[in-house]
Amino acid sequence: MGEADLPAVTAAEQRIHRFPWTLGNFRDSLLAGHDAWLQRENGAVGAAGAVVAFAVMMRAVDEAHLLNISVVPERQRGGLGRALLDFLCDRARQGGMQRMLLEVRSSNPNAIAFYQRFDFVEIGRRRGYYPASTGREDAIVMAKQL
Predict the structure, then answer these.
(1) How far apart are CA 26 and CA 51, in angstroms?
(2) Annotated catalytic, 129?
(3) Which residues make beta-bridge pairs with 53?
(4) Could you tell me the sign of the dihedral formed by the alpha carbons of 97, 98, 103, 108, in that order?
(5) What is the reported pTM?
(6) What strands lie across the sheet with 121-132, from one edge to the other?
(7) Chain centroid to CA 60
(8) Which of 41, 115, 130, 137 is catalytic?
């Protein structure tokens, strides 16, 4: 993912999440040097195909922190998320990371189950971490040994 991809990634993010990342959030991640990947329709290169999935991962010492992993609604449950998470875990391992962390909304049982299938386990909670329609919502912190 590069700067030129950000408008398309941000548009996809707005279709996926009720409280999406902004273009500024993605830009800040790129400027910070975080790993940022995207998948275009039919594996197209450049701006040729629509963005269907993307992820942002931060590395810190020996841990990877999955900041965002998303698949557009019409392509969910088709294996893209699984393939992208496998790819990210492999990249983190190759980079010497010992474990991967992430936060997930406590109200998102499908995402929690998805991560559990990858051997992520709950290691804590962040109270009021996410914005929600009724104020704030807790995040479940999950980790996986790589």
Answers:
(1) 14
(2) no
(3) 39, 71
(4) positive
(5) 0.91
(6) 35-40, 51-60, 63-71, 99-105, 135-145, 121-132
(7) 16
(8) 115
Pick the catalytic residue: 3, 103, 130, 137? Answer: 103
Task: Classify 7 as helix, strand or coil.
Answer: helix
63: annotated active-site residue: no
How is residue 83 written in tokens? 């393939």
Beta bridge partners of 6: none
CA 100/CA 63 separation, integer angstroms: 6
Instruction: Please give the structure tokens belonging to residue 79.
Output: 């294996």
Q: Domains (ranges, CATH) in the chain?
A: 3-145 (3.40.630.30)
pLDDT at 83: 94
CA 98/CA 138 separation, integer angstroms: 26
Q: What is the largest CA-CA distance in the chain?
A: 41
Give the chain's residues under pLDDT 50: none
Q: Encode 9-51 in three state secondary structure.
A: HHHHHHHHCCCCCCHHHHHHHHHCCCEEEEEEHHHCCCCCCCE
Burial class (CB in 10 A: 0-12, 13-18, 19+), 12: buried
Q: CA-CA distance, 71 to 14, in Å (whole number)? A: 11
